[in-house]
Amino acid sequence: HTQAAAGVAGVIKMVQAMRHGLLPRTLHVDEPSPHVDWSAGGVRLLTEATPWPEGDEPRRAGVSSFGISGTNAHIILEQEPPADPEGEAPEETGQLPSGIVPWLVSGKSESALRAQAEGLLAHLDARPETTLVDVGFSLATTHSAFEHRAVVLGSDRAALVEGLGAVVEGGSAPGLVRGVVVGGDGRAVLVFPGQGSQWVGMAAGLLESSPVFAERLGECAAALGPFVEWSLVDVLSDPAALERVDVVQPVLWAVMVSLAALWRSYGVEPAAVIG
């Protein structure tokens, strides 16, 4: 079971089908189920790859995800619009065609923040061909975010450069927002999966190598003992037992509780444990 990724393979499959104009055949089906009246509607199984011709409307497809816990999701995919013919990128005039672009700078201190802005100004001065959007994208996706931060907003080069200059001077400018991150303790929440994530032999290595994990699992086994006829440790290596709902759910709970204790022993104190 793919847990949070359930359905993603179906999305990828249909996106590729739209791009190539070809519906892939239905896998692992020799013949349609006799329990369905296939003549009653327009639904049929594809026993071979089938062309998906272009029409007046874009191609559309529905993709369903059926989680093993009962969670169902359905999305409608639509073919992307035709791409513009490839050609040379238009020369930047300094004015963005629409809206504004953010430039993000940060530093571990106020002086470091100013130094970052000053360095960016020098980079722009040395490379006037650099586009505003490329700079904004790089700043947002490739730079670390430190405590002292500034965002410069502008629709043209002059406004963005003015904002950076204000950061360097410690002043103000239209479209400049600055601040300091307070209380960012990075607290962790442990989210554990439910039924469907088990496998035979899970936790065996930790039982042997981690006294903390083994101790907490032993406490769980003692708590479960009066209510079940099986051994918590024994069923971890029993394929048949792990197929039983009345076994696998408390077993997974015990393993996850023990994992939480293990993380705590390493100094990771979760704000909450859910799942």
TrEMBL record:
Q: Where's the Ketosynthase family 3 (KS3) domain?
A: 1-79
Matches recorded under InterPro entries: Ac_transferase_dom_sf, Acyl_transferase_dom, Acyl_Trfase/lysoPLipase, Ketoacyl_synth_C, PKS_assoc, PKS_Beta-ketoAc_synthase_dom, PKS_NRPS_Biosynth_Enz, Thiolase-like
Gene Ontology annotations of biological process type: fatty acid biosynthetic process
* Alphabetically ordered keywords of this record: Multifunctional enzyme, Transferase
Instruction: Tell me the superkingdom of the source.
Output: Bacteria
- Kindly list the GO molecular function terms attached to this UniProt entry: fatty acid synthase activity
Q: Name one Pfam family in it.
A: KAsynt_C_assoc
What is the name attached to this protein's record?
Polyketide synthase
